[in-house]
Amino acid sequence: MYNIWITTWYTVREALARKVFLFFLILSAIAIVITAVVVNVLSDAALISGIDPEQSSLIYEEIASSIQLIIITPLATLCILLAIFSSASFVPNMLEKGNIDLLLSKPISRPQLLTGKFLGGLLVVLLNLGFLIIGVWFVIAVRFGTFNFTFLSIILSITFTFAVLYALMVLFGVITQGSVPGMMIAYFIFLILSPLLYSGKNQFDKLITSDFLKAVIDFFYYLLPKTTELMGGITMDLALGKGIADWQPVLTSLGFMIAVFGYAVYIFGKKDF
Amino acid sequence: MNAVETKDLTKIYSSAFGKKKIQALVDFNLDVEEGLIFGLLGPNGAGKTTLIKLLLGITFPTAGSAKILEEKISNYKVKKKIGYLPENHKYPPYLKGGEVLQYFGKLTGVTGAELERKTDELLALVKLSQWKKTKVKNYSKGMMQRLGLAQALINDPELIFLDEPTDGVDPIGRKEIRDILLELKSRKKTIFLNSHLLSEVELITDRVGILNKGKLLREGTVRELTEKKEEYKLVIGDNVSGNDLFNNNSFAKISDGSYSVKVADINELNKIIDALRSRSILIKEILPMKSTLEEMFISLINESEKTNV
Fold first, then answer.
1. Are residues B6 and B84 located together in one domain of the fold?
2. B237 touches chain A (CB under 8 A)
């Protein structure tokens, strides 16, 4: 465990040495300050005009959560996009000649090494998202006097979305020893494939007449991670304190992540350097 | 006890579709005793680095087996007692000199005050104390090499693998590295050295192995390897010119008063000594003829190339 922690910690240091994560931290800090200024100039009367005063505390809670989501959703998406860009080279850098030789000459097993790298990437994103989300949540919660702690669970749902994509980047990093293929596949799934499959499965289902095409869409829908649902409906429901209504996207994405990361560990364990 | 043992160790690299196969190491058998400095010599591509990589689990063998410090090479925990300086090593560029030692120290299980102490001690040993807080991306090649040596020693290893340790280091730095290695040897550490610099290997190693095309051609002490079998240097007195004994084909004049003589065995040498003495020729010195390690290396490699052709 200690070896995993050391690798994790030095991956965080590697990330901090890159300007992208610092840039995002600064961006988050600016977003938190702007949020604090904006919510403090909002008038209570305007916000709850025409609403039964007895229900005002509930309304405040919903308003607070909505404002939090409006601010956090685009920033969290940006965080994932930047994190994919910045973390794609963690594994390829580790595998560079001269570096991997040294690491493998130490008393650390290959699965421990890769797990440390994986957890390091996640920890960086968790810290970035944590700073942004807790910051925004806190200033809004103070303003409205409503501390909805369940809102903070979106830190985990968004980090989990990144974890699923990062597992894929780790696998491609191990196979190709380059950062570009993993980064491209992660962007492709996050921005194109997952939204397409989600729409094909849930929104345009009735428009598709071919059974074969339906089966193909179903196959890929269940096989691949569901980042659209994870970042969309599930994060939204968690933010509003509704809990997770449908666990299927979470469980199938978790299965995908475990399978992909397990395969990456297997390949890494057999590879000659 | 042997620090390194290999049995029919073989490594064959295959190309992407398995069409082309390269034999990097073939049925390699070697025992390196504990407490020695062992030098592995060979031209580029001979398989020297592959051997170290196999022993450290960086690459996996195609066939055969190996042990380091009496443990199978598949047991990664044995690496706690091992230090390694790879050729062309690379450190995270965002780390400072001291942090590099701390990073690799922690990975080998050295922690806390012990790690702090070892870091300062080793940086002083390799003369990098004043560079402790400088990022390694600003280090020169020689400095990187010295930092690499310090890194390899951070866990006070029993067995140290050094792949071209003096590469890029100036002559004074080389001498300092040699002194460090000899000091380590005096502390009963085993050092496995890969080097192209034959003169350096000759100076510090106890035993030498010569490798070409994945095969171990010869192994022994430097003296054993450089000694010319049944060839002696005779230093004799004056006034021997015209003596028919020296018209013999087995004699060759090599310098004033010195001859080399080739004999079939030690009895023949004694007969020659008797003949010289019977002619009242003064024998000042009889020495076995030796070649330099470089001469021996080149002749052995050329011979091996011819055999393979």
1. yes
2. no
Mean pLDDT over all residues of chain B? 88
Q: Which residues of B231-261 are buried (b: 16+ CB within 10 A; e: fewer)?
A: bbbbbbeeeeeeeeebeeeeeeeeeeeebbb
- Kindly give, in sequence order, each residue whose CB lies less than 8 Å from that of residue A153, ignoring residues fewer than 6 positions away: A238
Tell whether ipTM is more than 0.85.
no
- Please check whether residues B13 and B44 belong to one and the same domain: yes
Query: What pLDDT is attached to residue A248?
Result: 92
CATH of the domain at B35: 3.40.50.300
Residue A146 has a pLDDT of 80
CA dihedral for A66, A71, A72, A76, sign (positive or negative): positive
User: Quick check: A96 and B77 CB within 8 A?
Assistant: no
| Residue B269 pLDDT level (bands cut at 50, 70, 90) | confident
User: Rounded distance, CA B56 to CA B73, Å?
Assistant: 7
**A96 neighbourhood in chain B, CB within 8 Å:** 90
Residue B19 is part of which domain span? Answer: 2-220
Q: Does B304 reside within a domain?
A: no
State the 10-residue block means of pLDDT for chain A, 273 residues long. 92 85 85 85 66 66 77 82 88 93 94 96 90 89 82 90 96 95 95 91 79 88 92 84 87 96 96 92
Note whether A31 and A129 are within 8 A (CB): no
Give the DSSP H/E element, type plus range, for residue A257: helix A248-270
Residue B303 domain flag: no
CB pairs under 8 A between A and B: 75
Mean pLDDT, to the nearest integer, of B101-112? Answer: 94
Q: What is the pLDDT of residue A70?
A: 82
Amino acid, single-letter form, for residue B118: K
pLDDT higher for B170 or A194? A194
Pair B131, B196 in one domain:
yes
The partner residue sitting opposite B107, judged by closest CB among A6, A13, A98, is A6
What's the gap in Å between the CA of A170 and the closest CA on chain B?
19
pLDDT of B177 strictly over 60: yes
Does residue B121 surpass a pLDDT of 60?
Answer: yes
Torsion of CA A216, A219, A224, A230, to 10 degrees: 100
Whole-number Cα distances in Å, B154 to A12, B90, B147, B180: 23, 17, 10, 14
Q: How many CA atoms lie within 13 A of B75 on its CB side?
A: 12
- Whether residue B97 is found in the same domain as residue B181: yes
Same structural domain, B138 and B278: no
Per-residue pLDDT at B308:
66
A102: closest CA of chain B, how far (Å): 7
Record: contact A99-B91, CB cut-off 8 A = yes
d(C-alpha A237, C-alpha A129), whole Å: 18
CA distance B104 to A229: 42
Q: For residues B84 and B274, which has the higher predicted lDDT (pLDDT)?
A: B84
Final residue in a domain of this structure, among B220, B252, B275? B220
Residue B189: phi, psi to the nearest 5?
-80, 150
Distance CA B23, CA B212 (A): 11
Q: Is B109 on the interface with A (CB under 8 A)?
A: yes
